[in-house]
Amino acid sequence: MAAITPKSVALENKPVRSESQWETVLRRFARHRMAMISLFILVIIFGLSIFAPIITPFPRDQIDQSRRFFQPLTINPETGEMHWFGTDHLGRDYYTRLLYAARVSLTVAVTSTLLSTLIGLTLGMLAGYFGGWVDMIISRTLEFVATFPLLVILLILVAVLLDNENLIPIPGFVLNIIMAITSVDRIDNARVIAVVILTIALLFWTGTARLMRGMVLSVREQPFIESSRALGGSNLRIMTRHVFPNAFPPIIVDFTLGLNGILVLESSLSFLGFGIQDPIPTWGNMLNFAQSYAFQHPWMTLVAGLPILLTSLAINYVGDGLRDALDPKMKI
Fold it and tell me: Which of 197, 242, 302, 325 has a beta carbon 3.0–4.6 Å from 28's, enabling a disulfide?
């Protein structure tokens, strides 16, 4: 029989550290195999887009009619460098264009999703928390915006706003930030990107607002909210310290779904010729040019469309992993 020592008694009496909510979520998410693989793919895609100016072998807009429609894995006869994904109809390196296109498409998708989520969170929380006439105004506005055929309205708004620069004045520092992130070299090109971001964000917030309103309605009458009110807590403090944290987890999943939807939406705009246009590369306008040569050079369509498909699937799987990790009823 082992002797009982003061040290062993102290070890037995030592309090066991409990796992926090977010540690549990991370542990459950790490068990989701497809979500982890998809997250790894997204890290690679974002990393390649960020370091595109360093790792791309050719200038983004370098035109050379002598090397039009080079097939993938063709060596440039002048420089000896490899055209990994071939060249396009103007002789521009497809691999280089694809990585720079990722910078633009992902910037538009992430920024638009952040802005639309912020708008939806704010309006949904105000509607759910205050109710009454505030809820009525926001809910009617939400229903009105949600009835729009999204793609059609986006096509019209983008066309109108791009032709009338004074309708939405965009600060110069915002345009400079966009130019730095996306590597565009002209202020008017940065303005096109900014208009697309704002237009998408102003029409894409309704789902988040509806979800946030429902979550706040389910939380606002809980005993801990009433206790906070009784202790003199202000509405702002109650919303930010108590309501928002309890309603936040589903918003994370909603963000990933919105990111995926906006990525495809921006690609659709560019593909149809109403979004960001050549010479600024995006996945959508590259696919637009590629489909013109789909029969003569089918690899162009495959190379241009595969990043959209791969990124969209990866975001979906990450969203599924987050949904399962945040739901304690799900077994992972």
Answer: 325
